[in-house]
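Lab notebook page, bench 4
Experiment: in silico fold of construct C2
Operator: M.H.
Input chain length: 126 residues
Purpose: comparison with the prior construct
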Amino acid sequence: MTGRLILVVDDEVLIALLASEVLTDAGYRVVVAHDGRAALEILRREPPDAVVTDYMMPRLDGLGLALAMRDDPALRHVPVVLTSAVAGDVLERHPGLFFSFLQKPYDLARLLGAVRDAVGAPGAPG
């Protein structure tokens, strides 16, 4: 299967489904996880081209996920788009860890734009 692979991680099922639908409709391949630990399992099986993750989640939050990715040589190059209603000062405390940030509730066009900025168009050469 061709197309850029995006991992969407959000414990809010409807948000994950909506983000997945928008990205799929735009031509990306999408896989969904509902917490950071499940996301790490997916990441280690098939590293995606980018990750869109919520900040506050059970088992492993978006910060923990991004830190684990940074510590893994096979995953540290994967851009991470953080989404949150309450990210606090996580961006200031971890400069450069996240490719971009979307404040929840975010506009779906902004989500698509952030992913395109991170990885390019769905069928663009890597």
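Observations: The chain is about 40% helix and 20% strand. The beta strands are 5-9, 29-33, 50-54, 80-84, 100-103.
Next step: discuss at group meeting.
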